[in-house]
Amino acid sequence: MPLFPQRFIEDLKHHADIVVVIQDYVSLKKTGATYKGLCPFHGEKTPSFHVNRDKGFFHCFGCGVGGDVFKFLELHEKSGFQDVVKQLAQRFGMTLPELEQNDEQRASAAEREGLLKVHEAATAWFRQQLASPAGSRIRQHIAARGVSDATGEALGLGFAPPGRNALAQALISQGYSQALLLRAGLLVQRDDGGVVDRFRNRLMIPISRDTGSVVAFGGRALDADQQPKYLNSPETPIYSKSRTLYGLNLSKAAIRERGFVVLVEGYFDLAQVYQAGVHAVVASCGTALTPAQAQQLRRFTAKVVLSFDPDAAGQGATAKSCEMLVAEGFEVNVAILPAGEDPDTYVRKHGPQAYGDRLKTSRPYLEFLLDRAAAGHNLNSDDGRVKFLSEMLPIAGRIPDVTVRDRFADRLAHKARVTDEVVRAEIRRAAAQRQTTLTARELPNFGQVTKAEKGLIWLLLHQPQSALAALDALDDGDLDGLPARSVLDLARQLNENSGFSPSIFLERLSSVDSQLVTAIASEREAHVTDADGCARIIKRLRCEREHTAIQREIDRLQELGAAQHGARIDALWARKKDLLQRIEGLI
Ligand SMILES: [Zn+2]
User: Fold this and answer.
1) Which strand (E) or helix (H) includes residue 159?
2) N or C: less crowded end of the chain, CB within 10 Å?
3) What pLDDT does residue 579 have?
4) Measured in angstroms, how far is the CA atom of residue 415 from the centroid of ligand 1?
């Protein structure tokens, strides 16, 4: 990524008032020193999204996102830093300076460009093969699966012929290098050094970004004995499986218009549903939806309808997708199909009208789970009610919106015939537990960040001078193993090199670290305000870590035989004594 000069970025940030910018998307109310509103990154009905104008950052206490004005636009618009800078410069009437781009950046931009072009060329070539006489068997195969010519056309279906290097020959003759084709995953290098087409004798399904650029392929086997049934492009600099949703390029306008999206599993489910006139459809392609894919969807809608086989509902990829979507604040409905049917077979058997009716009568996922769990337990017995509740409470605890969660609690209480206060309290407990597990996953060690580290981080934003002086007194060894090490390291680095300012600091933090920092900085007061005191605690913790390690080593040696290791043990005792004294001095 080319770089804008730091001075320009600082200038721009100075002009681009974070409250003004965020107010374009979120209505904010001033409450005390900060502004509050409904978080645009997760569904909520009571505001937990805070903007601090003076310090130039935002933070959501509901879902944990946070950062500066650039980060907000990057997340909200799903665009890169560069585009965000351009957008803000335009909005605030600043002229863009020349980009500083190094060789490596130029090379990777050129590579991505090359990869996109070669995918475009390959798509065109696969389509030609499908239209050629050699493709007639495949055209029949597609027709037999009930996919019309128009749908095939819309999906850009193609055919990779059986030859070992038909595609390679065609594209190399068009001027593409073998190296680029390998990089794109269109060719594979065999162990013996030979190079062959990855996709041979397959029905080719182009996978696109939502902008329409083809970035990968799925290849379906055409013969019964051909393995694997589906072969996919590998991950490349332009393709990440976990961030791509199949069909979004075709459906995004319809999703916006209809206000919801139908989520199906496979390519052919999508083809049938799309052909049935339900254009607001995407496919997860067999694996559980990832949060990154959910974020993609959220740009267009927060309502998802899943249609699947009732046996699949409570388990596997579908259940995981549902739970993740609920946890991400989506409104999730399920349209149950008869046992053994998927959208592909259902639409073909019963027609578009019947499928449309299934969608219309879809039910909220949570209700569906509730009824299913209730049916699985004897709610007339205490034992059954306890089992029912312990199955449902963790699910309830993952609902991010308090209002939705409370409503769900009422329904749970009603079914289990207990008072709703009991259920609500239990759910709050489950939700609190979930917060710790979630943060543990997303923010490494967030829960373990010590008070002293938190104190220093808070001070770095609110009283940087004292925090920097205290950090200066620490050395690398003191920071080793600290959960917030990367954050404190960055502050030290900036202080040494280019000069520290809270705004440069916020901008340079990784997304994960920025969540941690804005969470701490949003607290009205630091838990620990004495920066030197924090530094002392950090030094003491280091001594304690070393002390524990030495003790462990002494124990080990004594077990091996104090006689042989006497000298070593004595030396360790001396160091241990020394450390204890230092620890005393640091209290
Ligand atoms: Zn949020």
Assistant:
1) strand 158-160
2) C
3) 86
4) 31
